[in-house]
UniProtKB/TrEMBL annotation:
<dbReference type="Pfam" id="PF00496">
    <property type="entry name" value="SBP_bac_5"/>
</dbReference>
<keyword id="KW-0732">Signal</keyword>
<dbReference type="GO" id="GO:0043190">
    <property type="term" value="C:ATP-binding cassette (ABC) transporter complex"/>
</dbReference>
<dbReference type="GO" id="GO:0030288">
    <property type="term" value="C:outer membrane-bounded periplasmic space"/>
</dbReference>
<dbReference type="GO" id="GO:0015833">
    <property type="term" value="P:peptide transport"/>
</dbReference>
<dbReference type="InterPro" id="IPR000914">
    <property type="entry name" value="SBP_5_dom"/>
</dbReference>
<feature type="domain" description="Solute-binding protein family 5">
    <location>
        <begin position="87"/>
        <end position="502"/>
    </location>
</feature>
<feature type="signal peptide">
    <location>
        <begin position="1"/>
        <end position="30"/>
    </location>
</feature>
<dbReference type="InterPro" id="IPR030678">
    <property type="entry name" value="Peptide/Ni-bd"/>
</dbReference>
<dbReference type="InterPro" id="IPR039424">
    <property type="entry name" value="SBP_5"/>
</dbReference>
<protein>
    <submittedName>
        <fullName>ABC transporter substrate-binding protein</fullName>
    </submittedName>
</protein>
<dbReference type="GO" id="GO:1904680">
    <property type="term" value="F:peptide transmembrane transporter activity"/>
</dbReference>
Length: 630
């Protein structure tokens, strides 16, 4: 097996500027002025302020459609379908995994929109950038030992680490890392490295950060080169406009010679969900991913959703109350101390955490905070439901499995029971003083517990208000604390909370449900309170859970995998390391057929992923659209 060399595309910045302006059909890319309505799909919910850049090396701010998991401008190797759970071909034609080698074959007819071929070198160069610099996707290299091209077959090989073997994370990368044109980015990288080297005086880590910063300063606003079916022709404070690439390589390779329905895709820029929703209702927008509190009313005005009745959307995430397992360390970090005889150490008591879990009225959260846009939540941390599509995780742990397991740990089948919750506290040695203060088993008074939430995130705010009221009903001292978004991310990462709302692994990726557990609870992410945590912000440690999280990615047998997930979920239900609040759609998807028809729905038999039509595998839905007869 011979490794082929990976070119780093050494060319001048002058040639880069010429190439960026080139494209396959200048007439198609002329500014369209007022877009013809019968040829234009108006989309909403992805852009909230003036375009900053179309450079995927930026984690934030980067403007749609260059955002992660959007396959309109830049494409990933494969696209994840949350209906089937499969990685579908995109730039990659097929993939296979054999022990520590994950092999990818590219579509040999894939092209950039400037006419150049998408090559193995582009793929290797893209991943080289994420290895060399601290990007959003750098962590994948914790699980990749090397990448190379097989000379015999021309296939790309990901050689996985045997010490930290995790094909799940690498499969996620196949569906989330946008492949970049090396002939555009390599000259930029070379120029950035030269500039930073000339400035001197930097260590290796700082050098990499500074080079990346210069790469991220590339705005890429002028007709960016990508491999996707559309490119940008307008980026103003009021809208982003895309035009279809008539020679898009995927038309012949993936879509039997057909083009996507809309010639243009335009995203107007509004300031609020309400404006987007009003525009959708009026037919000024055709498809949107914004949250609406009254989708049922909008449906009566002709707005469509994935399901034609409640819950309307497919659940994909579990917003939860992260529990701080080191409350004394938080006090030290804040430079505070509690009055003598008071404590927050009850957060370390799994009986106390289970009582909090038992007290919460999840049906109220589902109906009032989530507006019934998700099915009822079931025990454990694996999404299981009875909806006709989108139940991938349920293959590992079904609704019946969840309730059978929960009956061992909970009374009334995980239902809400205030009386049972108070009884369980008393059985564990808790009691209430004459002033109704909660007294811990060691005689200390339980201090007010803060439940932190970002202000303005309305469904989270409503859920927190309900949860806090439920705790107070049981006799647990709790208060809701709403802070601005910047303060929220700081408090979350540094561990400055008692409870805090978070959605571990909010994105739909092949590694679910493993990555939800890993993101929230793996001890490998634990850092001292006050340091910036990239996961497991509650600083929870459990050796049994760690062992399963390490073993699951290497399991290939479906039966063995289901058994391992059952064990993992049982530990979760026994320990209650955090408090699940509700199921939530990962993406809201609604549309109107005033101008366009053919939007994917759950019963159309097309098997398209239930997401907005620029996300992941759902891009295929653009080839199903056609103008509505008027």
């Amino acid at each position: 097996m011979k490794k082929g060399p990976a070119s780093l595309f050494l060319m001048g910045v002058v040639s880069l500027l010429i190439l960026v302006g080139a494209c396959s059909s200048p007439d198609e890319l002329a500014h369209p002025g007022e877009y013809p309505r019968s040829q234009t799909l108006y989309m909403g919910g992805h852009v909230w302020d003036a375009p900053r850049n179309f450079n995927p090396l930026n984690s934030w701010p980067v403007t749609w459609p260059a955002t992660a998991n959007s396959n309109l401008l830049f494409e990933t190797l494969f696209a994840f379908n949350i209906n089937s759970g499969q990685l579908e071909p995109l730039l990659g034609r097929e993939w296979s995994l054999s022990e520590d080698l994950l092999v990818v074959s590219l579509h040999d007819r894939a092209r950039w929109n400037d006419g150049r071929s998408v090559t193995n070198d582009d793929v290797l160069y893209t991943f080289h950038l994420h290895r060399q610099y601290p990007t959003l996707f750098s962590d994948v290299w914790d699980h990749i030992n090397d990448m190379f091209v097989l000379e015999e077959t021309g296939q790309i090989v990901f050689e996985l680490c045997t010490e930290d073997y995790n094909p799940l994370v690498v499969k996620d990368a196949l569906a989330t890392v946008p492949i970049l044109p090396g002939h555009v980015y390599a000259p930029l990288e070379n120029a950035a490295r030269t500039t930073v080297e000339q400035q001197g005086g930097r260590g290796e880590d700082q050098f990499a950060k500074d080079v990346l910063s210069k790469l991220q300063s590339f705005e890429n606003l002028d007709r960016p080169v990508g491999s996707g079916p559309y490119t940008v022709i307008e980026a103003t404070e009021s809208r982003v406009g895309l035009v279809r690439i008539p020679t898009y390589w995927g038309n012949d390779v993936l879509y039997e010679g057909r083009q996507a329905g809309p010639k243009y895709i335009v995203h107007p820029i509004y300031e609020s969900n309400r404006e987007y929703n009003d525009a959708l209702r009026c037919g000024d927008i055709d498809v949107s991913s914004t949250f609406s509190q009254n989708i049922e009313e909008m449906r009566s005005d002709g707005v469509g959703t994935w399901f034609d009745e409640e819950p309307y959307y497919v659940p994909g995430s579990i917003p939860s109350l992260v529990v701080q397992h080191l409350p004394e360390d938080v006090l030290q970090y804040r430079g505070e101390s509690l009055p003598a005889g008071w404590t927050k150490n009850v957060l370390q008591d799994r009986v106390f955490r289970r009582v909090v879990d038992m007290a919460i009225d999840r049906e109220a959260i589902r109906s009032e905070a989530m507006h019934s846009y998700a099915p009822p939540i079931h025990p454990g941390y694996i999404i299981s439901h009875d909806m006709p599509t989108g139940n991938i995780e349920g293959t590992y742990f079904s609704v019946d499995d969840a309730h059978a397991a929960a009956s061992y740990y909970y009374e009334e089948d995980h239902g809400r029971s205030l009386a049972a919750a108070r009884r369980k506290l008393r059985e564990a040695g808790y009691e209430w003083s004459s002033e109704e203060n909660l007294i811990s088993p060691v005689g200390d008074t339980v201090y007010q517990l803060r439940v932190t939430c970002p202000a303005g995130w309305t469904d989270w705010e409503d859920a927190v208000e309900i949860a806090v009221a439920n705790m107070q009903e049981v006799g647990i001292p709790a208060e809701a604390v709403f802070i601005n978004e910047g303060e929220y991310w700081e408090a979350l990462a540094r561990g400055d909370f008692d409870f805090i709302v978070k959605t571990p692994q909010a994105n739909q990726v092949p590694s679910l449900p493993w990555s939800r557990f890993e993101s929230a609870l793996a001890s490998s992410s634990v850092v001292p309170v006050g340091e910036w945590a990239s996961g497991n912000e509650g600083r929870y440690v459990h050796s049994g859970m760690d062992s399963l999280l390490k073993r699951i990615p290497a399991i290939s047998s479906d039966e063995e995998l289901a058994e391992a997930y059952e064990k993992l979920n049982r530990i979760f239900m026994e320990e209650v390391p955090l408090i699940p609040l509700m199921y939530r759609p990962s993406v809201f998807y609604q549309f109107t057929t005033t101008y366009w028809s053919g939007f994917p729905t759950h019963n159309d038999g097309k098997g398209i992923s239930p997401q907005n039509l620029n996300v992941g595998s759902a891009v295929k839905g653009l080839w199903e659209l056609y103008p509505t007869e008027r």
